[in-house]
Amino acid sequence: MERLDGKVAIITGGSRGIGRSTAQRLAADGASIVVGYGSSRAGAEDTVASITEEGGEALAVQADMADPGAVDRLFEAAATEFSGFDILVNNAGALVMGPVADAADADLERIFDINTFGPFRALRHAARSIRQGGRIVNVSTAVTGHGGANLSIYSASKGALEEFTKILAHELAARLVTVNSVCPGPTDTDMMVEEYREIGASMSPFNRLGRAEDVADVISLLVSERARWLTGQTIQASGGMVMS
Prior knowledge:
- It is a single chain.
- By secondary structure, the protein is α/β, with parallel strands linked by helices.
- The chain has 8 helices and 7 strands, in the order βαβαβαβαβααβααβ.
- The chain has a 7-stranded parallel beta sheet, sandwiched between helices.
């Protein structure tokens, strides 16, 4: 297993689901972790505890991605505690479902604040301060590549991340920083809508939902030296998801 000893990773939305599993995996690989969270302090502290109990190093930082000033706290913590950072995983996200005809402006604003504007601010900060040879991973969704009813706002907000990925990969290449997107399919986290669990499982040839650790393992690869020749890519981490 390739190690990340000496590396520092900032992970947004690290209190649960894919973010929590990613924090634990990268810590197991040797990285020190800054766990960003929005409202679940207990969940973030539990993530930190699960890492430190295994001998890793981590701290939790409250940073609601919808708050323009909150993102700065993540990077300030990395600078203060670890003298900088090498990895950014833009994972925090929120979901809203419903047809376009019924969409409310308030939902549009809230979802884009969390899924697009907040991550963009994190990318802007990373573009200025990530260390040479760093790694950036944006967590998007397989919906952007497959479509589907009732997910217009969510899909559009995540699709913007994929466009940021393509552009920033060019802008940061001179510093040997790679930038990629990961697109999970239906995954067994608390964002999974209960009524869609069976349908979601049937979309994969493996006939099961993805697990958070499945996606975390893909992210672990992308932030490693093994992925130095992968940049500007959108990786489908969806278990071969196909829409019926």
